[in-house]
Amino acid sequence: MIKRTDVLIVGGGFAGVSVAQKLAKQGMQVVLVDRKDHFEVTFATLRNAIAPSLLTANPRKYYRDFIQSDFVQADVVSMDDRIAKSSNGLEIHFKQAVIATGSRYPTLPIAKSTSAYTISEREQEMRNEQKILSKSQSVLIVGGGTVGVELAGEISSAYPNKTVTLVHSKDVLLGHLKPKAQNKALEQLTAKGVSVHLNTRLVKEGAIYRSMNTQETFKADLVYECVGMSPNTEFLKTELPGVLDKMGLIKVDEYMRVRGYSNLYAIGDCSTLDENKHGYIANVQGGILASVIINQAKGKKVKPYKTPSYAIVTPTGTETGVAQMPFGVFTSKLFVNLKQKDMGIGHMLKASGTTPDLLS
Fold this sequence. Notes:
This protein has 360 residues and is of the alpha/beta class.
């Protein structure tokens, strides 16, 4: 079976939905393909798994309820610069394509699922994780990036009597942030009782994790490995292997085009466009790319992409957090609540052209 479209968008995360919505509003023929039947605000998944009662809005929403373009639920298993082949046997012939397949943590499916593709499956995955966590007295978190720090904070807030240990291979937490934000996050986690070990690279030996430099051992009832983010680009290796760098990211130029192709674009976590991988930035990239495609269709000149100014808010639980704004680093509720209050659900769904469904 063959389907034809002007623009194919592969991936329905923050970046892909942003492009799809804006192009569809301009009357362009668009097909959005994603393996899931729903959009998910991934910022909220950790709290959703750990303390679901604290969320008043659903971080997930069916694509069918708000996407204005044509939606196909399937995996794209291979593609070149004209045709994409999907897991359901559909061939999609396109004039232009946007690859926005995002990334995953293979060892941490609660952050981004690797197998739950329907809302009901994903919600069951959250419930299962919550049950496992509730029965665990000690928790080991490996990795001190955004996910590891937020996870430690969420668990220590929801379960103050659990023993929470965070181990990070680098000398600071949140390596992509400024020193003040790094230090504040460390202070906040420590104040909540989280035992933080820096400059400690672990190797797994059965049920035990051993420090490679100090030989100290770590063991817990439950371990979360918040390391090893991988771009979802394996499907390109058959037909377009030359577009990937050594990390599996899609190489793009200053116009967001896949290097070597005039009709292929890549944005979000799967591309080299911005070093920092962040959902808000992916959403902004999508809007900018949509404008580029629209202006090109009208014969207008387009400008090269420039990373916009943005804020990074990292909650360290339900009461504390750090906010790195373009004009400074803050810990006040005024700024931290930009994300912490509803974990970004309202803002990101609004940016995607819809509103969240309330939880009963």
